[in-house]
Design a protein that fits this description.
The structure is a single chain. The chain has 17 helices and 8 strands. The protein is of the alpha/beta class. Strand 3, helix 4 and strand 4 form a beta-alpha-beta unit. The protein is globular. The two termini are 38 Å apart.
Amino acid sequence: MTQLKYNKIDEYLASNASEDNVPDLFFLWGHQYLVGEKSKRIVDKLLKGRDRNLALEEIDGEAANAAAVIDTVSTMNPFLDIRVVWAKNLPLFSRKPGWGYAKEEVKRLARFIEKGIPGNTRLIVTSESCDKRSVFFKTAAEKGVVVDCTVPQGARKSDLNEQTMFLRHTAEAVLTAEGKKLDKAAFQKLVDLTGFDPDTFADNLKKLASYTGDRAGIKVKDVDAVASRTKKDPIFEFTNAVCDKDLESSLFYLNSLESAGFHPLQILKALTNQIRKLFAAGCFIEHQHTGNTSGWTKGQDFNTFKQKTVPAIQAYETRISEKTREWGKTTDLLILSNPNNPYPVYQTLKKADNFSVQELKTALSVLGDIDHDMKSSAVDPGLLIKNFIVTICSKGG
């Protein structure tokens, strides 16, 4: 049984230099950035310079059930000595009602793995979460390697220490390949600017590597020149958890905000602004059903989003703006305020997929009622917000 944390997988791969020693199955779950980066390392190890177009087959987990994964893995190619199937983001243990694999599908995939991966095929499975009590996890750990890529998101000292360890690990992985080194003060300054946002942190590291040119050391002055402040504050963590319909985290961050002295109306305003963004995104997504294709599909990757969806958003919002001007009005249902930085919009559309437009419309109405009640009655404002969170996080999208 081989179980590893994310910071041990590189060492494991290096110690198994021979192809004969590399297992047929890897299962990774946890933080999206970590899972993606470590999966790429495993793919590179398995392919060893082979043509990726021929030897690598990727499956979009959100669109593939267990039968589709099994069928893909079972389809042999006698002309390849090694073939890698990368099943990304399988919703094996989704807690969203009506979403993800049924228990029987999980068992079916486990039984397939139990019999052994066919021939020259190697299988990489990734998922957002994991249930270590499940037959799939136990089978994967017995037959292959399971890699825990989770990082705690809390604010306890132990959680913050692990987040820092992860960011150090990321800095070493990114900069070693560039022949660079980040000194301690520069590392701390970058963490202060970005907070625990692995994608932004890694992106800034790459910018710093390019900015410093032939110079190996990266210092505080370089961070000041290149990195921008993107640190996520507690309000963002709270609204982000609500948009993910993560009830446990939403209530945790709400309690943290209240303990830190945030006013209930301040919390309500942030929540309302976020729901309005989702509503605007939902209106765009639903617009495709009128005959105008939005270009957006659930589970879409960022590159496809930039190529297909961003132009569609621009065209859609141009039409909206023209119509409102004709009516002598303005609109706040625009989401692409900066076309040069579409990534936040990409994240908003992904979260909007958790809700229906009607659900968001109702939520905005309820938030308006809460605002009125807070200002005109003696009702407990914290209880109003908590009840809203429980309701919206418990509903199916």
